[in-house]
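In the design runs reported in the main text, the only information available to the sequence generator was the tokenized backbone. The following block is the verbatim input for one such run; it is reproduced so that readers can re-run the procedure and compare outputs position by position.
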């Protein structure tokens, strides 16, 4: 396993926080919303729609990767640095009383366990959301990335990466929401927003 210098991680964390813009006000009972899904499934679209309905801090691995590494290599060492930074960031934000949405693939249960532990450690309510779409639609979305640039889309994943990652998707062992972004995602978002608001009042 690659060791990451703690001081370097702290520098990454400070730099990311400084560039996240204005953070929302804290709440008494924060929530950690974790998206789980393959490239092209619609995770960033879902988080954008969530942000229209409720104030929540979005932590997106694709943006943080490109912020830390100007020319990403997507190596194992780079991934180690990225996710250590993201986990530190999640824990810090939740400890400040901020609701957080983590936008990453989160395909492997062992990696999700780290998020479960962060929620437990910070006393945050954990909400898991499996984001999916039909494979043919995902193929179309990933193909469009080659020709159309979306300023809000920080992912470089293509169809070959999708196929490679699809084989590593492990079952989600905890209760979770499922949403198919090929249809109307509004009803699922409303359910999640209601759950977050109920938790804030608890």
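Verbatim output:
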């Amino acid at each position: 396993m690659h060791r990451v210098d703690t001081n370097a991680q702290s520098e990454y964390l400070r730099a990311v926080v400084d560039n996240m813009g204005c953070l929302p006000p804290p709440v008494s009972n924060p929530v950690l919303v974790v998206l789980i899904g393959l490239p092209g499934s619609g995770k960033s679209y879902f988080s954008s729609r969530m942000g229209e309905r409720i104030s929540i801090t979005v932590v997106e691995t694709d943006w943080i990767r490109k912020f830390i590494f100007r020319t990403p290599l997507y190596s194992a060492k780079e991934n180690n640095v990225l996710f250590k930074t993201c986990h530190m960031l999640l824990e810090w934000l939740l400890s400040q009383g901020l609701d957080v949405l983590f936008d990453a693939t989160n395909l492997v249960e062992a990696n999700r366990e780290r998020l479960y532990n962060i929620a437990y450690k910070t006393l945050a309510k954990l909400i898991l959301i499996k984001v999916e779409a039909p494979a043919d639609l995902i193929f179309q979305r990933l193909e469009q990335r080659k020709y159309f640039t979306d300023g809000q889309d920080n992912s470089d994943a293509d169809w070959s990466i999708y196929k490679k990652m699809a084989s590593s998707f492990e079952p989600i062992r905890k209760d979770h929401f499922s949403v198919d972004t090929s249809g109307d995602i509004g009803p699922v978002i409303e359910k999640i927003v209601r759950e977050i608001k109920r938790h804030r009042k608890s």
